[in-house]
């Protein structure tokens, strides 16, 4: 495509998009003026009713727990698709030796992943008390694992990213969510009903079985992210490292 | 209410940084530098989310923007560079 045609296509598109954006922004509520009723309702009832101080997490895993299960399976299906596409013949995984050689980076590599994983677990555990929860904590745990690859080396990462270990863990996370829901059905109450009572406000024991759903989501999200990156690294980076090594 | 009032100038400042940050990402020509600038831009967004009262979103964004996304970009950059080297050798 010549430059003139590209400009001729780009400028009208830019004008239309900009006009649409302006139109959209002009119709938005004023800054800080939230209009929906549900936020106000939940803000009032979540803590007395469900003994949970983080209303966002109460919405995600309790009031809208069923939606979150759907989202979990979307992630599960997406990761399964990536694995089906990228994972080569199993068992032929050779371990390349590209350990990081700088002492200071290795030291950081020993400390930082542990620290980030700890923060991630803390975010999950206190998801019903302070901001955080299964998704954020799970991603943080996966990021901590990822730092192992960056700061220690491919070998350490590839031991951790072993599919024989991770695939069942991911399945446990996704399936565990459904199992908590089914446990309620078996007990004779509707799907995903809280079976353990609301717990104690402001402690890790708040949230009841929604706390289990929170942990299931954390396991699913952490494992899914590590699997995704492993497949990505195996497919694109490991062959490069091997060629050089 | 007074605490919220003191946050408003900070919010304006951060909105300003966001407005500067986005073009800075687009205008970095070197992909490697762009990755770093994008990470910093993401951090500014994280601070903005915190000040706008959305710490949950900020926590997700923090991890995604500073660790997960840069790693994906770095892998892509490394991959494209190595295939370019191969083409040069051939």
Q: Keywords for this structure?
A:
A: 245 residues; mainly alpha; 10 helices; globular; B: 90 residues
Q: Over all CA atoms, what is the radius of gyration of chain B?
A: 17 Å
**Helix/strand structural class of chain B:** mainly alpha
Largest interface: A-B, 23 and 16 residues
User: What is the count of β-strands of chain B?
Assistant: 0
Largest sheet of chain B: none
> What's the SSE pattern of chain B?
HHH
Assembly annotation: heterodimer
Report the portion of residues of chain A in β strands.
under 5%
The whole-number mean of residue pLDDT values of chain B reads: 86
Give the overall shape of chain A, derived from the CA principal axes. globular
User: What value does the Rg of chain A take, in angstroms?
Assistant: 23 Å
The proportion of strand residues of chain B reads under 5%
- N-to-C CA distance of chain A: 42 Å
| Count of beta strands of chain A | 0
Q: Which descriptor suits the 3D outline of chain B? A: elongated
Helices of chain A, by number, come to: 10
The biggest beta sheet of chain A is recorded as:
none
Average pLDDT value of chain A? 87
What order do the helices and strands of chain A follow? HHHHHHHHHH
Helix content of chain A: over 70%
Please sum up the structure shown:
The complex is a heterodimer of chains A (245) and B (90). Chain A is mostly helical and 245 residues long. Chain A has helices at residues 3-26, 37-50, 55-63, 65-86, 103-125, 134-151, 154-160, 163-186, 209-236, 238-244.
């Amino acid at each position: 495509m010549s430059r003139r045609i590209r400009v001729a296509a780009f400028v009208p598109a830019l004008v239309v998009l900009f006009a649409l954006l302006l139109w959209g922004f002009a119709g938005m509520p004023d800054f800080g003026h939230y209009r929906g009723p549900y936020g106000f309702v939940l803000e009032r009832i979540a803590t007395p009713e469900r003994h949970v101080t983080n209303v966002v997490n109460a919405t995600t895993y309790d009031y809208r727990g069923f939606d979150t299960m759907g989202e979990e399976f979307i992630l599960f299906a997406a990761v399964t698709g990536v694995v089906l596409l990228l994972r080569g013949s199993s068992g032929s995984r050779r371990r390349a030796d590209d350990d990081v050689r700088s002492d200071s980076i290795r030291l950081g590599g020993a400390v930082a992943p542990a620290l980030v994983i700890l923060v991630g677990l803390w975010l999950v555990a206190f998801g019903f008390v302070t901001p955080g929860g299964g998704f954020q904590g799970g991603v943080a745990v996966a990021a901590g694992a990822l730092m192992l690859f960056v700061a220690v080396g491919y070998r350490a990462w590839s031991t951790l990213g072993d599919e024989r270990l991770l695939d069942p863990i991911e399945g446990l996370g996704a399936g565990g969510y459904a199992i908590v829901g089914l446990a309620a059905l078996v007990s004779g109450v509707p799907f995903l009903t809280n079976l353990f009572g609301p717990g104690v406000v402001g402690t890790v024991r708040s949230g009841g079985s929604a706390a289990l759903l929170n942990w299931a989501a954390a396991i699913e999200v952490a494992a899914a992210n590590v699997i995704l990156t492993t497949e990505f690294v195996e497919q694109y980076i490991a062959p490069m490292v091997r060629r050089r090594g | 209410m007074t605490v919220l009032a003191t946050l408003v100038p900070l919010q304006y400042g951060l909105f300003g940084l966001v407005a500067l940050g986005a073009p800075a990402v687009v205008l970095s020509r070197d992909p490697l530098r762009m990755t770093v600038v994008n990470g910093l831009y993401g951090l500014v967004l994280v601070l903005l989310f915190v000040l706008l009262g959305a710490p949950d979103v900020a926590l997700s964004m923090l991890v995604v923007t500073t660790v997960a996304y840069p790693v994906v970009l770095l892998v892509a950059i490394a991959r494209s560079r190595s295939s370019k080297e191969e083409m040069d050798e051939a």
